[in-house]
Amino acid sequence: MANVRLERGDEGEWVTYLQQVFESKGIDPGRVDGVFGAVLDSAVRSYQQDNQLTADGVVGESTWDKLTNVTVESLKVDWSELPWLAALAQYEATEDGMRQFLLDRGIDVKILTGQA
Question: Where is the Peptidoglycan binding-like domain (predicted)?
Fold first, then answer.
């Protein structure tokens, strides 16, 4: 997204995505219609100002980075909270492996597959 630059007057799928990102953060982007209008411009400027970014209304690299907040830290997984996922990794990545994983946990795979 670092190469996607949006500003007032732009239209299209990326603007719709931007509006959806704002909505997901509880920020009113106006109507989600793919049009970068006055309401979205105001929301972008407020967001930029609140996050110590240049409040110019242009959604460029730094604004996208802050909005999407994808960092290495945010992608780390606490495996202690997902013990079943660590266990699943010990099985073959096939349908039979998944079936065995479920059976080993007492899950009747026939019910899941409609073969009961």
Answer: 13-67
